[in-house]
TrEMBL record:
Family to which this protein belongs: Belongs to the YciI family.
YCII-related domain segment(s): 34-96
Superkingdom of the source species: Bacteria
Organism field: Angustibacter luteus
InterPro entries: Dimeric_a/b-barrel, YCII
Name this polypeptide is given: YciI family protein
Amino acid sequence: MPEYLLYFNQQWVGEHTEEWFRGRGPLAKAVIAEMKAAGVYVFAGGLEEEDGPVYTADSTSGSLVVTDGPYVETKEFLGGFAVVDVADDEAATMWGGKIAQACGWPHEIRRFKPQPQAETQT
């Protein structure tokens, strides 16, 4: 079955009270539990916004340079994601809709490219 990425950019979250966020956590955890019970859960997690380490790896100059900090020129950054293994786009959008409703902000749903088949030696 294909795997799908359900994700949101932190900027899509919007401004909310701490109480509002506390009320969303149990809803999102319930959707994750539902994914696990349905056997479609691969992984899910939110990313640390301010306190966690952030590194940039860049080899566009011909040699690898790793630096501290999110120095990529962008106004948006990934806030969190889930990976599900489902039969088709319909199932993926259903799970994406459930997690978007639980979190209270938009999510994007994208299918991963199929993994290349390993060659078997005879």
